[in-house]
Amino acid sequence: MTELRNVEADLARFRLRVLVVSVVVCLCFLLVVGRLVVLQVVRYDDLRAQAESNRTAVVPVVPNRGQILDRNGIVLANNYSAYTLEITPSRVPDLEQTIDALAQIVEITPRDRRRFKKLQEESRSFESLPIRTKLNDDEVARFVAQRYRFAGVEIKARLFRNYPYGELASHVIGYIGRINRAEKDKLDDSENAANYRGTEYIGKLGVEQSFENQLHGVTGVDSVETSAGGRAVRKLASSPSTPGDTVVLSIDIRLQKLIEDLYGDRRGALVAMDPKTGEVLALVSKPTFDPNLFVDGIDYENWQALNESIDKPLLNRALRGTYPPGSTYKPFMALGALHTGKRAANTIIQDNGTWTFAGHQFRSHGDHGLGPVDMHVAIVKSSNVYFYSLANEMGVDAIHDFMAPLGFGGTTGIDIQGESRGLLPSKEWKAGYYKRADQQKWYAGETISLGIGQGYNAFTMLQLAQATAIVANNGVKHKPQIVIANQDAVNRTRVPVAAMPGQDLGLRPEHLAVVQRALAAVTTEGTSTRVFAGAPYASAGKTGTAQ
Q1: Start-to-end C-alpha separation, the chain
Q2: Phi and psi at residue 220, to the nearest 5°
Q3: What is the distance between the alpha carbons of residues 152 and 322, in angstroms, rounded to a whole number?
């Protein structure tokens, strides 16, 4: 028997199914429309930027580093262009095998390999590192012909720093070196992060370090269109870099060379300052080093030779070395005595060769005395006995309070980094320096040797030069200055660096005159007569020897 179908029921079910499908289709359509609205309207700017970034790349244009000149315009640091062979370790499957293969095309020495390994340790794997620098045209051509064999290896043209005078004035000029991880992290956290994109070298010492901002310049950018493989196709836009400023030093490189040549292989330091302005005409630290060794990464042997040498060539003795000043301290002790009223210039002290305090004998001039001496003779003939007794009369704190404004025991404020403070002792200093109670107490006997520039006294050559300049400049103190001008690399405009105005320390002219006359007599009738015999100019100074 044939079953009769319920047409009305079937039709109702069909209509329901159509309705459900219609609703689903509408919902899907609404989802598509909603997604299109999000992509085309809400996220338009963001997605457009992403699409543009996929099509283009922004490449930093590293600026030329500024030159360094001496006061007469002689070039002390400049740049030259050369080709380098560079490897990006993250893009090379077998690094050692690749280097061995490259060595068949261009010369790669064991020194190059060691330097590359050192750079690897200091850099990230995705950074391009030089395996060979300063390639000649033949080497470039040989590599380019076989470029297809070496993924992650490329030729780059780079600017290299050059120091034409080598070791001369290297402690003043300083050097540049590859940015290490600590410096990279510090730059990334600074407001200059964008300006150092693409920069791989930074000032490490001297003027190169202290005037990094002026010398570096402003990084430019090139906007280039790239292929799907990331290769540059064409340049779309360019914002050129601005070269760093030329920095002009107060140093006279000819005077600097004369002094360094006179030192020869001996160790020592010298600072020549213009007392009227504070400009440093020569700042010598011997022995010295060749800053060109650091430009493209110093090798292990040279670094070990410099770092482990008993002569410490990397130590800036003029700025960082601290020494007892010896008898060169005596003129300032004399000036302090006059300023504080502890002793008059005509006061006579009997110098019998020794001076006794609390049962202890302090010796002078090999136990032979100078007889009765006043302040003038005590400076000219360098009487230890005179200044032993003077130190005892003044006391350590009075000495400290007079010497501190002259610059002893504090930084002078010179415009290059790394200056040591030295040590100007006082009761307060000793109480805070030592831990044991018996060591914290200042004993009167410790004051005696301070009078002849020994004991706890330890100052830099720069501090001594500044104090001497104050006496020569009639009591006016100037901050030592190395950089005297910046010259714009584009328009060549030279802008002088404003010097701080001199500070009058309030020393009385008649007191200064006493010491000045004595210092002039030192070179004509005193302890340095032979050195200045026959000199066609007037001179003044003070000899000194410290243990």
Answers
A1: 134
A2: -100, 180
A3: 50
DSSP 334-389: HHHHHHHTSS-TT--EEE-SEEEETTEEEE-GGG---EEE-HHHHHHTT-HHHHHH
Burial of 110 (0-12, 13-18, 19+ CB in 10 A): exposed
Q: How many Å apart are CA 464 and CA 412, to the nearest integer?
A: 10
Separation of alpha carbons 471 and 493, rounded Å: 36
- How far apart (Å, rounded) are the C-alpha atoms in residues 264 and 388? 35
Global pTM? 0.82
Cβ atoms within 10 A of the Cβ of 443, count? 11
Q: Pull the structure tokens for residue 109.
A: 């020495």
Backbone angles phi, psi at 375, to 5 degrees: -65, -40
Q: Check if the beta carbon of residue 239 is closer than 8 Å to that of residue 218.
A: no
3-state SS of 204-257? CCHHHHHCHHHHHCECEEEEEEECCCCCEEEEEEEECCECCCEEEECCCHHHHH
Cβ neighbors of 32 (< 8 A, separation 6 or more) are none
Beta bridge partners of 361: 356
pLDDT tens digits for range 139-187: 889 888 888 888 888 888 888 899 999 999 999 999 998 888 888 888 8
Q: Could you confirm whether 285 is annotated as catalytic?
A: no
Task: Choose among 225, 217, 220, 224: nearest CA to 201.
Answer: 217
Distance, in Å, from the CA atom of 198 to the CA atom of 184, rounded to the nearest integer, reads 11
Catalytic residue among 123, 170, 241, 327: 327
- From 87, 158, 71, select the one nearest 123 (Cα to Cα): 87
Q: Residue 451 in contact with residue 391, Cβ under 8 Å?
A: yes
- Those residues whose C-beta lies under 8 Å from the C-beta of residue 257, and which sit 6 or more positions away, are 165, 168
Provide the residue type at 541 as one letter: G
Cα(330)–Cα(381) distance, integer angstroms: 11
* Structural contact between residues 286 and 317, judged by C-beta atoms closer than 8 angstroms: yes
What does the pLDDT look like over 330-387, one tens digit per residue?
Answer: 999 999 999 999 999 999 999 998 888 888 888 876 667 889 999 999 999 999 999 9
Give the Cβ contact number of residue 424 at 10 Å.
23
Contact 183, 202 (CB under 8 A): yes
Are 425 and 457 within 8 A, CB to CB? Answer: yes
